[in-house]
C-alpha cells in the first residue's frame, strides 16, 4: 500500500468511527420527558414511538454503513477494481466505450448491493411505523424508471467528461466544468415538467379557500405564481412535505396531498411562504452556485491527479486510464467532499432560519409556522432533541426546537 491508499483507508475508517460516535451521542440524549413546546401536542405513546423510530433507523444505518465499508475494502484489497478493468479492456472496444462499461459495471454492482437495504427500509421499517404506502410493483417501477433516467441522462454526461479528459489536454477540466454546469442548470428546467411526473402525479390545486389564500399571499409579496400543484405523495408514504423546484415558467410550488389533509389553510400558507422565501432570497440560486463552484474545484483537482501513477498503484491497477482514474479520484476526493459538505449544510441551515423568518414576517403569523413545524415533526416521528454534534454532521435543516425558538423571537 502506498501513501494514497493509506490516506483513503484512514479517512473511510475515521469517517465511519465519527458517524458511530455521532449516533451514540444522539441516542444518549434521548429523554423520557416530552420537550416543553410539545407538551399537549404529542401523545406520550407517539413520543415513545418517535424514539423507537430513531433507534431503529440508527441501528439500520450503522449496519448498512458497516456492510458498505467492509464490502468496499474486500473488493479493493482483493483486486476487484483491477479485475473489472482487465475484463473491460479485453473486450477490445475503444477507450470511450471501455470507460463507460467500466464505470457502468461498478455503478451497477453498487446498485445491486443497495437494493436489499432499500427494500428492508421501505417494507419493514417504514411499514412497521405506519409510513409506507407503496407496494412492490410501484417500488420496482420506480427503480426501473430511475435506471432509464440514469442511462438517458448520465451516459451522455459521463461520455462528455471522459472525452474531454481524453482529448482536450490541459483545458479538459474547464470544458468539463462548462458541460456539467449546463447539465445542472438544464435539469432544473426540465425536472418539474419532464422528470418528476414520471414518478408522481401533479394536479393543479383546485379552486377554493386554500388556493385563494395562497394566491393572495403571493400577490402581497410580489411573487409571480401561475399555479400551485398537489403531488400524490400518499402513493408512497404517509409523511408530509412541500417543496419549490425549477426556474422561470418551469418553476413549481408543490404541496403533498398528505400535507393538505392534515393542516388548516393558515398553516399551509405559512409552509408555502417559507418555500417562496427561499426563492425571494435567492437561496436556490445561491445553493446552485455553490454546487457549481464545488464541481469546478473537484474537476480542477481531478485534472492534477487523474494521471498520477501512484493513484492506480493504490488500487492495484497496472495500466492507467481516464475511466479508472475518474473512479479512484472520487475515492481520494471523499475527505475534501466530506468537509465541504458540512460547510454547505451549515449554509443550508442558515437559509432555513431565514426562510422561516420571511414566512413569519410576511404572513404576520409566526404562530402558524410554529404550529406547522410541531405537527409535521409529530406526524413524521422526527427526533425533537438531536445531539448538536449529530446535527453538525448530518442536518441540512435546523432541529425543530431551534426553529421554534427562533420563530418565537420574531
Please provide the ordered H/E string of secondary-structure elements: HHHHHHEHEEEHHHHHHHH
Structural class: mainly alpha
Tally of separate helices: 15
Radius of gyration equals 23 Å
What low-confidence regions span 5 or more consecutive residues with pLDDT below 50? none
Task: Count the domains.
Answer: 1
According to DSSP, the number of beta strands is 4
Specify the overall morphology: globular
In short:
With 410 residues, this protein is mainly alpha-helical. It has one domain (3-199, 281-408).
What attributes characterize this protein structure?
membrane, 4-stranded mixed sheet, globular, 15 helices, 410 residues, mainly alpha, 72% helix
List strands and helices in order, with pairings.
Layout: H1 3-28, H2 44-77, H3 80-90, H4 95-128, H5 136-167, H6 172-195, E1 202-204, H7 209-220, E2 228-231, E3 242-245, E4 252-256, H8 257-262, H9 265-280, H10 283-305, H11 309-313, H12 322-363, H13 366-379, H14 388-394, H15 400-408
Parallel strand pairs: 2-4
Antiparallel strand pairs: 1-2, 3-4
Helix pairs in contact: 1-2, 1-12, 1-14, 3-4, 4-5, 4-12, 5-6, 6-10, 7-9, 9-12, 9-13, 10-12, 12-13, 13-15
Protein name: Peptidase M48
Pfam families: Peptidase_M48 (PF01435), Peptidase_M48_N (PF16491)
Keywords: Endoplasmic reticulum, Hydrolase, Membrane, Metal-binding, Metalloprotease, Protease, Transmembrane, Transmembrane helix, Zinc
Structure description:
- This protein has 410 residues and is mainly alpha-helical.
- The protein has one domain.
- Helix content is 72%, strand content 4%.
- It has helices at residues 3-28, 44-77, 80-90, 95-128, 136-167, 172-195, 209-220, 257-262, 265-280, 283-305, 309-313, 322-363, 366-379, 388-394, 400-408, and strands spanning 202-204, 228-231, 242-245, 252-256.
- Strands 1-2-4-3 form a four-stranded mixed beta sheet.
- Strand 3 (242-245) and strand 4 (252-256) form a beta hairpin.
- Helix 9 (265-280) packs across helix 13.
- It is globular and about 65 Å long.
- One of its GO terms (molecular function) is metalloendopeptidase activity.
- This is Peptidase M48.
- The active site is at residues 275, 356.
